[in-house]
Amino acid sequence: MTDCAKDWVLPNGFTYIASTAGHYGSWAKALDPLTAARNAANYNGSSYPHFVSVWYGPDETSHVTDMGGLSYASESADKMVPVGFFEVRKNSIKPSKDKRCTHLEFVEEWLRYFDRSHQQWVKHQQEQ
Questions:
Q1: 86, 43 in Cβ contact below 8 A?
Q2: Cis ω on the peptide bond leading into residue 49 (within 30° of 0)?
Q3: What backbone torsions phi and psi does residue 35 show, to the nearest 5 degrees?
Q4: Domain segments of the chain: what residues?
Q5: E strand segments, the chain
Q6: Residue 101, SS3 per DSSP
Q7: Less packed terminus of the chain by CB within 10 Å, N or C?
Q8: pLDDT for 25
Q9: ∠101-20-62 over CA atoms, to 5°?
Q10: In this structure, are residues 121 and 77 in contact, taking their beta carbons and an 8 Å threshold?
Q11: Are 17 and 62 in contact (CB under 8 A)?
Q12: Residue 122, class by beta-carbon neighbours within 10 Å (0-12 exposed, 13-18 middle, 19+ buried)?
């Protein structure tokens, strides 16, 4: 970690990362998942609802890409947690029930991604 404090990083070096995704999407990091989701939605504009993905993981090895996707280091994939997929409105945040992607589908899918990524990293390390 650098000498300057980052106000979105918890004492354990982790953070909550939120993304609205897409080419014109937005993202935010925060000390809690609701602030991260709300900030990402607010940065994305005032037309609601916004659908926001939220993850928890090491700040130093995870960030949001230009297209709104999550980038993380495979060696720390076992530390990443998919917090959820939320529908953010002007005055509320709730788990998504949208037919395109529900909160539960998001969590289950990302748990598989993180597990597969970490397993591949472990296998690669053992082969060296």
A1: no
A2: yes
A3: -65, -40
A4: 14-127
A5: 14-19, 27-30, 50-58, 62-64, 70-72, 81-89, 92-95
A6: coil
A7: C
A8: 83
A9: 100
A10: yes
A11: yes
A12: middle
Strands 62-64 and 70-72: antiparallel
**82 pairs with which residues across the strands?**
55
Structure token pair of residue 126 = 């053992």
Q: What is the pTM of this model?
A: 0.91
Structure confidence at residue 34 (pLDDT): 97
Distance, CA of 63 to chain centre: 8
For residue 78, list its beta bridge partners: none
> Residue 73: its pLDDT value, please?
94
Between the alpha carbon of residue 91 and those of residues 36, 41, 87, 94, 103, the distances in Å are 15, 12, 11, 10, 19
